[in-house]
Structures are given as structure tokens and as C-alpha cells.
Design goal:
Blueprint: H1 12-63, E1 68-72, E2 77-81, E3 87-92, E4 98-103, E5 106-107, E6 110-114, E7 125-130, E8 136-143, E9 152-158, H2 169-173, H3 176-179, E10 184-186
Antiparallel strand pairs: 1-2, 1-6, 2-3, 4-5, 4-7, 7-8, 8-9, 9-10
């Protein structure tokens, strides 16, 4: 009658193994969701920057009006004003990303520019979008036109640019690699 009683529960090793599996799956799902969220935010920010400039460039051309564009990089928003400085539109950028505009060898907290009555921009410049970890992901270059009467915007995706962060973007932008767009692929 000395039979060993069967236990109806998990042993210590079974519990540890179960917790390890649950933790591994949870970590995988967290990373996957975070990466998807970052990818969606980057896509959204590119589309906002492209769409707003195209729309107000065309509007300037057809209506023969000047619009003032303020890009607030810290507050992560774009404000469009008419010539009398009345706010026409305010658009928020994805908040978890960082942005930098390089112009005249400087960084800018607020970048101001105007459209012109012929649909051009008053300044040519580049916007860099940074991912959640602070690494550069996209660059959007705006060119003022001289011959063609169409605003040119080139969007580049980071293909294999390494070690370029928010902190060192100014040096990178004016380097040979930055000027020649080495490691970037143009978005279709």
C-alpha cells in the first residue's frame, strides 16, 4: 500500500519551461508590433510631408497666392498660414519619430518657408526622419525649380546607411556619403 501519490500540477521545471515559452512568444510579438508601428509612422510622416507640399504648391500656382509653411520639429507639427498669417491648416506628425531639417549648415527647431505664386518654394532643403531608436530612416529632399514648372520632391529610404543618428546628422549631411546619397534608395 505504499503507492506514490500522483501529483496533479506542474513540476518546478515544467513551470519554468512554460514561463520561458510564454516570455519568448510575448517578446517576439512585442518586437513585431513595435516594428510594424514604426514602419507605419515612417510611412505616414513621408506621406504628410509629400502631400502638404504638393497641395500648397499647386494651390499657389492656380490661385496665385503665397502660403507660409512652418515646420515645428520639436512639437512635431506643420502649420500652414495665408499671407496675412491666418492659420489655414495644422497637421500633426507621428509623435514617436524625430525629425531634422538641414538648411544653411544649421539645425532648426522651427523651419519657415513660403510657397511662391508660381508654385515654387522659397527654399530648397532636406528633411530627415528618424525611427524610434533615433537612427535615420528616410530623407526627403525638396528642390526649387528653375526650368520646369513642377515642384520636385525626392524621397529616399535607408537601404544600408549605418551609424547615422539624430545627434550626428549635420556632419553626415555635408559629408561625401551624405551629398552623394550613398546607401539610400529612391522611393517610387
Amino acid at each position: 500500500m505504499n503507492k506514490i501519490k500522483k501529483t496533479k500540477g506542474l513540476t518546478f521545471l515544467e513551470t519554468i519551461a512554460t514561463l520561458a515559452i510564454i516570455s519568448g512568444v510575448s517578446l517576439f510579438l512585442f518586437v513585431k508590433i513595435s516594428n510594424d508601428s514604426e514602419r507605419k509612422d515612417l510611412e505616414k510622416s513621408r506621406r504628410i510631408f509629400q502631400e502638404i507640399f504638393f497641395r500648397y504648391s499647386r494651390k499657389s500656382f492656380y490661385e496665385k497666392k503665397v502660403f507660409k509653411i512652418e515646420i515645428h520639429l520639436v512639437d512635431k507639427k506643420i502649420i500652414i498660414k495665408n499671407f496675412s498669417k491666418e492659420i489655414l491648416e495644422e497637421t500633426n506628425l507621428p509623435n514617436r519619430l524625430k525629425y531634422e531639417i538641414i538648411y544653411a549648415n544649421m539645425r532648426h527647431r522651427i523651419f519657415n518657408l513660403d510657397t511662391t505664386k508660381d508654385g515654387n518654394l522659397s527654399k530648397a532643403f532636406t528633411i530627415y526622419n528618424f525611427g524610434y531608436k533615433g537612427d535615420v530612416q528616410n530623407r526627403i529632399a525638396y528642390y526649387t525649380f528653375q526650368k520646369e514648372k513642377i515642384l520636385k520632391i525626392n524621397t529616399y529610404l535607408n537601404q544600408n546607411v549605418k551609424n547615422i543618428t539624430y545627434e550626428n546628422i549635420l556632419n553626415y549631411h555635408y559629408s561625401t556619403e551624405g551629398q552623394n546619397r550613398i546607401g539610400w534608395i529612391e522611393e517610387d
